[in-house]
Amino acid sequence: MKETSHGVLASATAAEAVVLGVPEPGRVEVRLTDGGGMLTARIAVVGYDPHTGDRVLVLTNARGDGYVVGVLLASTPAARAGDVSVRVEGSEIGLYRDDGTLVLRYDAERGETVLASPGDLVLEAREGRVRIAGAQLELTAAQIVQKTESLVTEAGSIAFSTDRWELRANRLKERARDAFIDVENLMQTRAGQLRTIARRTMQLFAERTSIRSREDTAVDGKRVLLG
Q1: Where are any strands of DSSP class E within the chain?
Q2: The pLDDT value given to residue 161
Q3: Listed residue (119, 91, 96, 118) closest to 106, CA to CA
Q4: Strand 66-73 relative to strand 37-43: parallel, antiparallel, unpaired?
Q5: Which residues pair with 80 in a beta bridge?
Q6: DSSP assignment, residue 201?
Q7: Coil, helix or strand at residue 59
Q8: Which domains does the chain have, with CATH numbers?
Q9: DSSP state for residue 74 in the 8-state scheme
Q10: Out of 7-16, 110-119, 129-138, 168-177, which region has the weakest mean confidence (pLDDT)?
């Protein structure tokens, strides 16, 4: 197409595009479906009322000017609530703010749902249960705080990796069939009273052993073997 005497178009090419928004009357923001990027195009179709999600035919010239010259598929007017509107693009349907910020998106082709919130996100069931189920659950946060009257965890295997572990409790009770504790450097226990009960045998192996008591030290047994 040659440039006219009015200088409207020169070396124009046509491509399919999806309407992303209407920044001002007579113009639309579109995304070219062939990977050509996004641009603002002037509406050149008489009587066309653009809506987000429409598929249109866009003509662009060598200067990068875009013109909507045809409507391939007109969507229904976008449902809105405040500054949030519904947008449909291909296999995706989503809720977006007017500035393009994502609120909720569902991709039917990938089976993926994304929920985003710039502020607090609250899930509340005052008289019921909140259930989260999945093949894998990942939590990533600068801080995780749990407040509950009772916490029950059931798992086939649990692994913790941390630089520091601190546990505070009024009473601590642990039960295990076998327990193995491996400490590379120092293991220290401080207690008001310390008692160890072994049903059968107690063994202590060390290069050096030191027992000090401020008062009495008693060793009681049927036989006491030294050396």
Answers
A1: 13-24, 27-32, 37-43, 55-60, 66-73, 80-81, 84-89, 92-97, 102-107, 112-115
A2: 92
A3: 91
A4: parallel
A5: 85
A6: -
A7: strand
A8: 13-73 (2.40.50.140), 80-115 (no CATH)
A9: P
A10: 7-16
Q: Name the one residue in this structure whose structure tokens are 């010239």.
A: 61
Angle ∠(216,221,222) on CA atoms, nearest 5: 150
Question: What's the pTM?
Answer: 0.51
Q: How does residue 3 score in pLDDT terms, banded at 50, 70 and 90?
A: very low
Half-sphere exposure of 193 (CA within 13 A, CB side): 1
Phi, psi for 84 (deg, rounded to 5): -115, 135
pLDDT digits (tens, 9 = 90+) for 79-90: 777 778 887 777
| CA distance to 91, 98, 100, 113, 198, per residue, from 107 (Å) | 6, 20, 17, 6, 61
Instruction: To the nearest 10°, report the CA torsion of 146, 147, 148, 149.
Output: 130
